[in-house]
Design goal:
Length: 236
């Protein structure tokens, strides 16, 4: 009986040791897999964070460029109120000189007709001179439109006459004026209106939001991973 009991104890302890060794092996394999997963995820997370930071930096640079170009011109413009202008007179007064490039270090003089347009703003009786946009106003304080200078004066003359005929047909046109009345000139169009500013700020804002979202998602993934590890340790 003693020998039989001893044999049974030895067999039981051997089976228990074998089960513990198998458990250790599975445990080591599990830990190794987790280490491999963490090692594989870490470079990907770092690259994702760098991508997010790069997107945020790019959006900030785009905001800076827009701030010194479009937004500055938009803020400095005094033609902020939109109204309706009635065309009173549209006539060609004189020929204006301009210069065009004819090659390397070569400039020649050409001429284009100066179209002057006078309008009444919002039927108030206030008569103002109409200009195409801010660039035209800066280039010429007398003419409605300044075409691109070229050798063919007949083409420029035809262009100006077509504009004059269109203004005579469409006597009521939308325009922008200075509410403080410091500028007597009114504009037909603005270079940078509300829609241009909105669309110019839309893409940098999307890039900024995308970069911030990538960083937040990576940090959330890291937090959830640590939380799962802590829960697993508590259960064991």
């Amino acid at each position: 009986m003693f020998f039989v009991a001893g044999a049974k104890n030895t067999a039981g302890s051997g089976g228990g040791n074998e089960r513990r060794s198998i458990y250790r092996k599975f445990r080591e394999v599990d830990l190794l897999d987790k280490k491999k997963t963490v090692t594989a995820l870490k470079p990907g997370e770092d690259r994702a964070i760098l991508l997010g930071l790069g997107m945020i930096l790019s959006s900030v640079m785009m905001y800076f460029v827009l701030g010194i170009t479009i937004l500055r011109s938009y803020a400095d413009s005094v033609w902020t109120e939109e109204g309706v202008c009635v065309v009173l007179n549209s006539t060609v007064t004189a020929d204006m000189n301009c210069s065009y490039n004819c090659g390397s270090d070569c400039w020649r003089v050409s001429k284009y007709p100066c179209l002057q347009v006078y309008v009444s703003v919002n039927n108030t009786g206030r008569v103002s001179r109409l200009s195409h946009n801010e660039e035209t106003q800066d280039a010429s304080s007398e003419c409605f439109y300044v075409p691109r200078c070229q050798k063919d004066t007949a083409a420029m003359h035809t262009m100006i006459m077509n504009i004059s005929e269109r203004l005579k047909v469409n006597q009521q046109v939308p325009c922008y004026y200075d509410p403080s009345e410091q500028q007597e000139t009114v504009l037909l169009t603005r270079l940078y209106d509300h829609s241009v500013v909105f669309h110019s700020l839309l893409w940098p804002s999307c890039i900024l939001a995308g970069g911030a979202l990538i960083i937040v998602m990576v940090k959330l993934t890291q937090y959830l991973s640590r939380l799962c590890e802590e829960i697993g340790k508590i259960k064991r």
